[in-house]
Amino acid sequence: MIAQTLIDRFEQFASPKIAEPGDPVGLQLGNANREVKTVMTTLDVRPEVVEEAIEQQVDFIFAHHPMMFHAAHNLDLSDPQNEMYAALLRHNIVVYGAHTNLDNVNGGMNDWLAEQLDLHDTKPLLAGGTDPLTGQHYGMGRVGTLAQEIPVSNFAEYCCQVFNLTGLRLIKPLHERLIKTVAVLGGSGGQFYRQAVNQGADAYVTGDVSYHVGHDMIAQGLTVVDPGHHIECVCKEKLQAMFINWAHENDWDIKVIASQLNTDPVTFIQGAKR
Q1: Which annotated residues bind a divalent metal cation 1 (predicted)?
Q2: d(Cα 95, Cα 61) in Å, to the nearest integer?
Q3: Which residues pair with 140 in a beta bridge?
Q4: Is there a contact between 168 and 153 (Cβ–Cβ < 8 Å)?
Q5: pLDDT tens for residues 64-103?
Q6: 35 has which bridge partners?
Q7: DSSP 3-state assignment of 226?
């Protein structure tokens, strides 16, 4: 099977046309017409992930985060990022990135996160648009309800459990309320907290919340759980399962594996008690 065959099938599911403007989705590196036998799904394309792919004789890396957010200004191979590109080219590995199209599509990233939280009766957090291929309405993020309302501290512990975390950041308003309606948006969603408030969310789960935005969230009376950006790693197993299913349906002779590496740059540590 050539790489383009998988790309075409994926883009029927999550069209690049529903990605956010300027988002560098699609083919990142390599020749999409090359024959592939082994596909690896990953959240990030980092030097250690490329080493893993080379060891596993991977032909095609399918990532959520684009490998190239910014263009290279030179090809100095003493730069680890440039050397990573060179290693991919030396081993003839195709790289594809599905970013905000996977965030926006129904049945994609934000539905996977909502499923992890076991949210019911979900709807989009942000107004999106209409998919030109399917005619379906799409929108980033999800808002739904828990089976029962729980205190803030219990909800934070629950998030640690479902996302398999050793720690997270919790932003609590001065007057806490029980958590029943929850908004979730994978990645860096701090700027969209007002939409969570407007949709009646008691809590908002998103990553990379900044200091001053945190103060604004408190002023709005919103509880926020910041579990980090890396919870989007759910995509590795979800994409793997999707591709295996498509391979069976279409009789593709490929092996699909998920990266086993943790690419979260943040480590939570326990401080000394005073």
Answers
A1: 65, 103, 229, 232
A2: 5
A3: none
A4: no
A5: 999 987 778 898 999 999 999 999 999 999 999 999 999 9
A6: 2
A7: strand
| Structure token pair of residue 97 | 């990135």
Whole-prediction pTM:
0.96
Pull the structure tokens for residue 39: 């596909």
Q: What is the pLDDT of residues 160-191, one digit of tens each?
A: 999 999 999 999 999 999 999 999 999 999 99
User: Could you say which residues of the chain have pLDDT below 70?
Assistant: 273-274
User: Has 103 been labeled as part of a binding site?
Assistant: yes
Domains of the chain: 3-102+232-258 (3.40.1390.30), 106-227 (3.40.1390.30)
3-class SS of residue 252 = coil
CA dist 76 to 45, 70, 79, 91, 156, Å?
19, 16, 6, 19, 45
CB 143 within 8 Å of CB 164: no
Is 65 annotated as belonging to a binding site? yes
Token pair, residue 63, equals 């990532």
- Between vectors from CA 268 to CA 185 and to CA 182, what angle results, nearest 5°? 25
In sequence order, which residues have a C-beta less than 8 Å from that of residue 87 and are 6 or more positions away?
47, 50, 51, 54
DSSP for 188-207, please give it.
E-GGGHHHHHHTT-SEEEEE
Confirm or deny that 232 is annotated as ligand binding: yes
Using alpha carbons only, how large is the chain's radius of gyration in Å?
20
- 132 exposure class (CB count in 10 Å sphere: 0-12, 13-18, 19+): exposed
**CA angle 86-82-79, nearest 5°?**
130
Question: CB of 256 within 8 A of CB of 15?
Answer: no
